[in-house]
Design brief:
The protein is an alpha/beta fold and 493 residues long. It has three domains: 2-47; 78-247, Jelly Rolls (Sandwich), CATH 2.60.120; 255-486, Alpha-Beta Barrel (TIM Barrel), CATH 3.20.20.370. Helix content is 24%, strand content 26%. It is built from eleven helices and 25 strands. Helix 4 packs parallel to helix 10 (454-470). The two termini are 33 Å apart.
Length: 493
């Protein structure tokens, strides 16, 4: 049996080694044509992205084709206290605490350091650290991107981690007592029992270098390092795991994402030609159940936009019924998101990961929702709040960081925001070298609630194109950003 596809991207050959042209209709062996379809270099008209539209099938088909289906290990972090040098890196661990390498509880596929805390233990304690200048430090280091990944059986036993790096006696040192500054939800640290939490060095509003707290420390390849906390007594034995304590690689370039909600008709009439003129990708969140109502696109218009050959329009998942989360009813909303996955694939013909990126109606979320979304196979989620911790996205690819469900929204495009405000927000993305989202809805002659003026959009797209062409930012869709971060295949720009 043979299938027919349309070639979308150059560089592929047929079963005889002959080159295939963009736009060419090619008929060939099923396995070859399907592989090109799922790799987004060709399209089989009417052929579903997944044979049964379930998230599990979507992932398993990619695996069968030898493609990346899971989050990749974040590359390049520099371990200051590596698990493979346990005797050295636990030399300063407080008496009464026991350390070991845990091969069962892993972080991003790697063993972790486990610290066992006996029942009744309380007070200031060094959890892990060297007793001399034998910790590992990259040299040079600009004192930025310090991070620790930690989990615990009982989140009530410690409120923060004090991170210290200095010379052999710590007379000259840097220090940061880190909680969860920069997280928008106000959850205490850590979030949940037996879930990874990430502490990145910074304030409530921005990342920062670790501060000098004594003397004049100087970066060297070997220094003394430790982290400590004040433990609260527990009636039970508890355990703390360290996934890594180290330095993340710097982001390559600031990333801007334009994300719009609700499926307005103006996307089809105004945003589409504007985006194509400036070659600016737009992530468009669709709630299938409200298409064709009021001032929304028709299903036919949405289908046409999803299939636009420019590959600029990334259709994301806004739930089928535009269903707001009600506390305790997370499963109901997850099912509505799942229903929209089927609608987007079957009815709109959306290919790729777009339907697996959630946009929460009203920006309402909960910790239970993040957990259920992860279990269901969704990839990311977007609220409507700034969160620099997740704008620094180097840990998101680990698959362990629930920050991928709390993306960094730096500006909302409506009557409360001027074009100057948004340009300043993009300046902040550049300064912090982060990924930041500009959240919009509708457009009209004048700004209003959930509406930004057409002139503002014109100025914004021109400004983003100028910055992109000057090389100061990259502009991506949500699907492309996450695919580039994790090594997933992606059709969208």
């Amino acid at each position: 049996m043979s299938l027919t596809c349309t070639i979308l991207i150059p560089g592929r050959v047929d079963e005889y080694g002959r080159g295939l042209r963009v736009g060419q209709e090619y008929t060939g062996p099923d396995d070859l044509v399907k592989s090109m379809h799922f790799a987004k270099v060709a399209e089989i008209k009417g052929f579903p992205y997944s044979t049964d539209n379930s998230l599990e099938a979507h992932l398993s088909e990619h695996a069968a084709l030898g493609m990346s289906t899971g989050a990749a290990v974040p590359t390049g972090w520099f371990d200051i206290l590596p698990y493979w040098d346990l005797t050295n890196v636990s030399g300063d661990t407080a008496a009464g605490l026991t350390t070991s390498v845990d091969y069962n509880v892993t972080f991003a596929g790697r063993p972790t350091i486990r610290i066992d805390v006996p029942a009744g233990t309380s007070g200031a304690k060094a959890l892990l650290g060297t007793s001399a200048a034998t910790a590992y430090i990259p040299n040079p280091w600009d004192l930025k991107n310090l991070c620790v990944a930690v989990r615990c059986t009982n989140t009530a036993i410690f409120p923060s981690l004090s991170q210290t790096i200095g010379d052999a006696t710590l007379a000259n040192r840097w220090n940061k007592d880190k909680t969860k500054e920069g997280h928008p939800d106000g959850y205490s640290f850590p979030n949940r029992n037996n879930e990874w939490c990430f502490l990145k060095c910074g304030s409530a509003t921005a990342p920062a270098a670790i501060a000098v707290t004594a003397g004049s420390p100087v970066v060297a390849n070997r220094m003394r390092a430790k982290f400590a906390t004040t433990l609260t007594s527990s009636a039970s034995n508890e355990s703390i795991w360290i996934g890594f304590f180290g330095i993340l690689p710097s982001r390559k370039k600031p990333t801007v994402i334009v994300s719009m909600d609700d499926g307005y008709l103006t996307w089809y009439d105004f945003i589409r030609p504007l985006a194509k003129y400036y070659n600016i990708p737009v992530s468009m969140s669709i709630a299938g159940g409200i298409l064709g109502t009021g001032n929304k696109m028709s299903i036919a218009q949405a289908r046409e936009l999803a299939a636009d050959s420019s590959r600029l329009f990334d259709f994301n998942n806004h739930s089928y019924s535009h269903l707001y989360l009600v506390a305790g009813k997370e499963a109901e909303q997850i099912n509505d998101f799942m229903l929209n996955v089927s609608f987007m694939r079957d009815t709109l013909g959306v290919i790729g990961d777009g339907p697996l990126h959630m946009i929460y109606p009203g920006g309402v979320t909960s910790l239970a929702q993040y957990a259920q979304a992860k279990t269901a196979g969704f990839l990311t989620g977007r609220k409507n709040q700034p969160c620099w911790m997740h704008g620094q996205d180097q840990t998101l690819a680990s698959g362990e960081d629930d920050g991928r469900f709390v993306q960094n929204v730096v500006a909302v495009l409506d009557s409360t925001t001027t074009i100057g405000d948004v340009k300043t927000a993009v300046d902040g993305i550049e300064t912090r070298n982060e990924v930041g989202i500009l959240e919009g809805h509708n457009s009209a002659s004048a700004s209003a609630v959930d509406t930004w003026s057409r002139q503002n959009y014109e100025e914004l797209f021109a400004d983003l194109a100028t910055r992109r062409d000057a090389g100061t930012v990259e502009v991506k869709s949500i699907s492309r950003w996450y695919a580039d971060l994790t090594g997933r295949p992606c059709y969208q720009l």
